[in-house]
Amino acid sequence: MKLLAKFNLIFIVVFGVGWVVAGYLANRFLQENARAQVEQQAQLMMETASSMRSYTTKQVKPLLQREQIRSNVFLPQTVPAYAATTSFDYLRKTYPDYTYKEATLNPTNLRDRAEDWEADIVNNFRNHHDQKMLIGDRETPTGRSLFLARPISADPPCLECHSTAARAPRAMIRLYGSTNGFGWKPNEIIGAQIVSVPMSLPVSIANKAFYTVLIYIGVLSLLTLIIFDFAVVMIVIRPVQKLSATADKVSKGDLDVPEIPVRGKDEIADLTASFNRMYLSLVKALRLLEE
Asked: What is the pTM of this model?
């Protein structure tokens, strides 16, 4: 095998290992970055929902309560959960894969009843009272989705309507009935705020960036190999070929071969100088023998 081929083989092996390691690290970084972006979106949505709840409780509810008392009707717009959920329903018209739900095990509005996977989240909070947030992902019909959940507890204001049907406003009973949404206990975990954000787009962007990085690394490595080969040919291969050609002529009895010029101070130059000294010594010895 030629010397250049050996150098190329070593380079390709080293590059191959480095390419695999770099690809693994790049893919891991990009995927983690994509997930971090999705988590940031989910937290932003959750904080937005909490802000809507606070706004409804502090500003909207006091205004509408007077209307409820005057008209003897129940206005769901005074309920923070209703306000947050309804607001996000408008958002879903533009972004249908983004969801927000206040999933409840025993809700007044059956729209808020927890599905199986949501009930598992609520029960997890019920079994771990010190847990304030849960982040995970699941498969949906449109692809993988990340969810972020926070527990909902039955605070004292909630018990005004949800402790027993007898204590609930009559207008609310007329609207929702007396079967669901009662029996809540003080500070009991009754549900969870759950935000779901699709991961398909960030992951797709991460995958595209990953393949682009691999292509760039491949092109850069090819250019490096070409430059490396040129340097090896000029610095190593050609001087060695000259040494080999000169040694071949001397071995065939040609003693009129000129010395090889020594250029530089590297190992090739040292080898050339040593060869020249050996060649001169051999010529002198042969001529002495001839005399």
From this structure: 0.70
